[in-house]
Each structure stands twice: as structure tokens, then as C-alpha cells.
Amino acid sequence: MRVFLVRHGQSVSSNLGTRQTPNSPLGDFGKKEAKALGLRMKRWGVTFDKVFSSKLPRARQTAEIIAKELGTKLEIFEGIHEREQNPVLYGVDITSKIHKENVKEYRKSSNNLDFKFKGRGESIRDVIVRAEDFKKHLEGNHLSQDILVVSHGLFIRVFIANCVLGENYDDKSFAELFGALTIHNTGVSLLKLYEETDHWEVIYINNFSHLKDIG
Predict the structure, then answer these.
(1) Which residues span the domain enclosing 40?
(2) How do strand 75-76 and strand 50-53 relate by DSSP bridges?
(3) pLDDT in tens, the chain (215 residues)
(4) Number of domains in the chain
(5) CA-CA distance, 65 to 109, in Å (whole number)?
(6) Closest CA to 53 of 8, 85, 9, 13
(7) How far is CA 17 from the centre of its chain?
(8) Are strands 50-53 and 199-207 parallel, antiparallel or unpaired?
(9) CA distance linking residue 150 with residue 82, whole number of Å
(10) Residue 134 · residue 53 · CB < 8 Å
(11) DSSP 3-state of 71
């Protein structure tokens, strides 16, 4: 099984300099990013057996554009969405006091997988549980297939770390691997499961060369 992980395109919130909300839509440049990726994937000649998308608009809209270029259908999959934040952070300006406080606290707690800003929202551990559930779904239902997953930067980083380290990870190793990963808007990462050994291999991470195709 091969799993192509794609982060959504640039959202409207990114253009406005505000934190994203669950309902943040894809921006105009994000639509161009998605189209460029769809056209590039078409040239790759990959036939996806399944296309999964996060339920959040910016990911779903990205997936719809890519799926249209590939002439395939997509399925919304519950559980592969972005980490749920403390509601006080949604939509705030990135120059605001509360945003800066969150960044400071998050960095101080980088090795604490259970950290939640002011005790609300999801922790990284919560996202790990969702990523593990999704991995089990893929392993149980889509062996020997090529799967496209359109999701979010943090979820993709958690999913990759989970595939590499497995369920018996230690928190420090997981935090360090997760923290070392960067995923660009519409960046593509490819993982392969060797089914005979149940071993996941990272083929590449964060390929966004298709953005050179945007005029």
C-alpha cells in the first residue's frame, strides 16, 4: 500500500494574518496550488484506489480540485482533520497577545504530548489516537492500494511519526520526530507499507515542486 499525504492549499486566513478557524475556506492562491498539484499528479499517472479528505472546508476544497483534475471521487473521512484548538484562539490576529502567549506556552511544552492551551482543545496525544485509528483503517481495508489523503499539516506530521515509531513510542522520541517535520501548503509526502513485514517506509516528505507550475 502506498499513501500519498497532501496538506491543503493556502487558506483565506493565511492571507489575512489571522489564525484559522474550523470553517476557514481555501484562498485564491490555495486554489491555484491545488490545481497545479492535480495537474502534476495527472502527469504522474497514478491511479488512486481511494481519495480521502478531511471534513474541514480548506482540505475538502483542495481535495475537490485535485479529484476533478484526476477524474475521481473523494470521500470525507472523520478523524483526519486538524487539531482542535482552544476556541479562544480561532480567528485571532497573529500579532495578538493571546496568539503570542499560545506560541510561547506551546514551545515551552514541546515534549509534553498532553499539553492543551489553557486546558482546552485537543492535545497532540489526542491527534495521535486519531492518526492511529486512521492507520488501522487503511491497514484493515486498503492493502495493496494507492491512497490519496488530503488533510492538514499537523495531522500529517503526527501520522508520519506514528507510522515510523509505531504504538510503543516514547514521548520524547515522538515529540522530537514530530517537531522536526515541516509540511508546506499542498506539500506531498509518500509512505509505503510493506505488507509482508508490516513495515512502514517514508519514501519522501513535503514535495511541493509542482508550485513552480503556477504562472
Answers:
(1) 2-213
(2) parallel
(3) 999 999 999 999 887 889 999 999 999 999 999 999 999 999 999 899 999 999 999 999 999 999 999 999 999 999 999 999 999 999 999 999 999 999 999 999 999 999 999 999 999 999 999 999 999 999 999 999 999 999 999 999 999 999 999 989 999 999 999 999 999 999 999 999 999 999 999 999 999 999 999 97
(4) 1
(5) 37
(6) 8
(7) 20
(8) unpaired
(9) 11
(10) no
(11) coil
Identity of the residue numbered 6: V
Question: What 8-state DSSP symbol labels residue 23?
Answer: T
**186 φ, ψ to 5°?**
60, 20
CATH code for the domain of 187: 3.40.50.1240
Contacts of residues 137-142 at CB distance under 8 Å and 24 or more positions apart, as own/partner, are 137/77, 138/1, 138/3, 138/193, 139/1, 139/193, 142/1, 142/49, 142/50
Sign of CA dihedral 68, 72, 78, 79: negative
Q: Give which of 15, 1, 8, 58 is closest to 33, Cα–Cα.
A: 8
Could you tell me the three cell numbers for 141? 481495508
| Residue 8 grid cell | 491543503
Q: What is the model's pLDDT at position 103? A: 94
What 3-state DSSP class applies to 201? Answer: strand
**β-pairing verdict for 50-53 and 2-7:** unpaired
Residue 126 three-state SS:
helix
